[in-house]
């Protein structure tokens, strides 16, 4: 066991865990943030997508020992910084979720996309979102919600 | 779920402290369910009725359909809110707990609105009448002058009002009207209207609580080593390396209890699940696999289905002497259509928390489709009474039929009984993919003939493992699977064949565990039926739409197909290498048709567009009907062009999403869904959109390429 100091959603969190424990289980079961989900354990489904220093990362393949104390970890709980983000609102407007289990990961991937590319084309969305599986089949609405969020962000900037 | 837990507390508070309230219970969820009042005194005992209006005006509904994404936590309270004249936000929802008094509580068979449409509305209407009568009495005015609106009873002329809370106590003393007047459809304010689902915000903020998210004080975690050939016995366990893993508490033999048989398994119990998983990977279990390399094998199974196709099956129905007429028919055709075994693969893997306490009482937190079935299974397994079991149903992170099969729940029961601690069992994705149960693979042996340019003879011989037989042990060898009635019977699907028709069945058994999967057998047999109708249409030199309309006298089917033809622009001229295919199928009370357009691309085809039409009769939220149908388009195409499950020599050839691929966003085609407003009795919504999708695709590929596909899945990028 070893002590790790993490910067999780802007807060300092101290955990005492095995070095090889993936961030997914640290976040869920030691920092008690359950919004990040387990789906495959092999970075195949994207349900565990978080941001590490603003970049999307698969928490199930990120050992806690690989994360430094100044690395910024953001989860679905921290994405709106206390408020509902434009992306989450777009998800509600388009009524995207069915079961909703994969949607934390979908939203984290979409947030990273829109940050680097505020006006993505369909091809950009394909490239950024194809790592996130949804068994309910909400893809058409995810695409619409990303376009909607992109429009809303333009308005917000003006 | 956070909301649900809060409302659960509110509810118990209401039930316990506010004894003077109006409570209307429903006995049994059938259309003619009788209403019975639950006396206020009973409330103190917490024998909860379905609907409680307490004296503070809170309205609580006990929802007997767990939400796995199909929207039951909106659909069910909408039925109540409509009749009770309150907004949806006013209804607190409590998930039912599996106790017998709530009747059927399983989300399955696309049954939520179908079965609750009348009983919940009747209960709401009865309560409204009782509240109205009470207000009228208090004012000494005729009830006809009073109306219910916005949670109050109003006297129209004077504008005075009394809230439901103010009336609930007195209203509860009235007899429940046996035949309350239901609202007419034209007066609906909620039913049939677009409304946002109130549970969506918690599902986009990470606050929704699924089974995987349950934490119970003192809980330990378990990972399970299952038999690689599913039914093997543990020969030896070497746990030396596992015991070195920090956090591992115990290695123990456990068992996986399926409805038809029990397998041996080994549990690794730890202080956290990562440690349990590491311990599982370090564990060396030797298995005695008996002869399962032979009997858990899909190639052997399908070979047996093709053998069975050479013989007569058991008749499910026959009109005319099909065999005789087929023998002498001049223009006839015979084909075999195959569909694979499939995993449900919900993104939330199977998991459950169970606490078998020292006193023998049991508490459960789990993502399960039916707390009533879970209650039956847990009580049977632990040999205890329902009164000793408290079931907390969480949200389900997808299910598609899988989470109404309780092997994972009973594993948690077994381990907790041994440890007397709360135990959280989490299956890995590999457990989910390699262990089943699966949708059974099936063979459709088709025969048909045409006379004078019309399809007049049709035989569907459905062949494969029976869910009724394996899961319920409810099928005799000389009996056709009764579930065919909901799937391919002509009584359900309405095709009228002028000369003769036959539906027959042969049960080919397997040791591979099977269970219902979204739309059950319709997901298999829709492929055979609708591709073969297409083949016969071409044999008759008819347009596939025209050929169908000729043998479908039913007005609702006609309307669905006409709507599809219009919305999908069926008659448009297409360039060479582009084609459209259609299919129509009725399942779970609703008719759905699909038109897919494909075009040739690089040796395969590309799906240009999917248009689906559904007539599900009365529905609650058109947007949710569309969402479910969109989901069915994605799952239906996935089942056609992505991976099936295969077993070779007892071992599943797929293990995770890299081998059991499901459709990804970049592969999702453009899609449109249209609803036919028939105003008929409600049909299902969660499943009926799926069966026509794969055959529409197969028929489109034939139209574009001339290549007829018979076996699912196929590689859409290589249509030779």
From TrEMBL, chain A:
Keywords: 2Fe-2S, Iron, Iron-sulfur, Metal-binding, Oxidoreductase
Source organism superkingdom: Bacteria
CDD domains: fer2
SUPFAM superfamilies hit by this protein: 2Fe-2S ferredoxin-like, CO dehydrogenase ISP C-domain like
Domain called 2Fe-2S ferredoxin-type: residue spans: 2-79
Pfam families named in the record: Fer2 (PF00111), Fer2_2 (PF01799)
Gene3D superfamilies, per database record: 3.10.20.30, [2Fe-2S]-binding domain
Claim: Metal-binding is one of the keywords in the record: yes
Name this protein carries in UniProt: Oxidoreductase subunit alpha
Source organism: Dyadobacter beijingensis
TrEMBL record, chain B:
Domain Aldehyde oxidase/xanthine dehydrogenase a/b hammerhead per the UniProt entry, residue ranges: 205-291
Source species, domain of life: Bacteria
Species of origin: Dyadobacter beijingensis
Lineage: Bacteria, Pseudomonadati, Bacteroidota, Cytophagia, Cytophagales
Membrane-spanning parts: none
Pfam families linked to this entry: Ald_Xan_dh_C, MoCoBD_1, MoCoBD_2
Protein name in UniProt: Aldehyde dehydrogenase
